[in-house]
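Q: Hi! Curious about what Transposase IS204/IS1001/IS1096/IS1165 DDE domain-containing protein looks like structurally. Here's the sequence.
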Amino acid sequence: MLRPLRGQMARGSTSAEPRAKLSRRELRWALEAIVVQHLTVARIAEVVAVAWSTANDAVLAEGKRVLINDPARFDGVKVIGIDEHVWRYARKGDKYVTVIIELTAMCDGTGPSRLLDMIGGRSKQAFKTRLADRDPAFRDAVEAVVDGFTGFKTIIEELPDAVAGMARSTSSASLATH
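A: Let's find out. The predicted structure is below.
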């Protein structure tokens, strides 16, 4: 596993973005540690010696830059899974995110699932808007597996040939296009 490198950065150094609190190496290590090793943001912050909010902001920004802002991440996607996830354990504010996972390789038996997108909250409108951002060819071809949260039944309205059903082995509603 790549290790972070702490220390002073020379003025004019290209090892970090201007005004960045973490170097490029630390950001790469942090993303890998969270995704592959399942480290928490608290542990990342401790290792790179910054506040939790500093580590969280940097990792979210880098994750969006490297993963979420890549339009090619939807290429070849045939099956997606949608579920809500408790992102933060706070008393105030929305603690949920809607997680969209690609299940194509898992369903084909050729590899693991992968994160496609995360949407703040778990509202019907948030997912509907994100799905509307995809081109019609994607919406017409994709199959979806969703949890039983009522808001996710929006998929039926947005995917023209979707059919709702309950999977026997789970409590998730299964939606498939014909």
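A: A fun detail: The CA atoms of residues 94 and 121 lie 6 Å apart.
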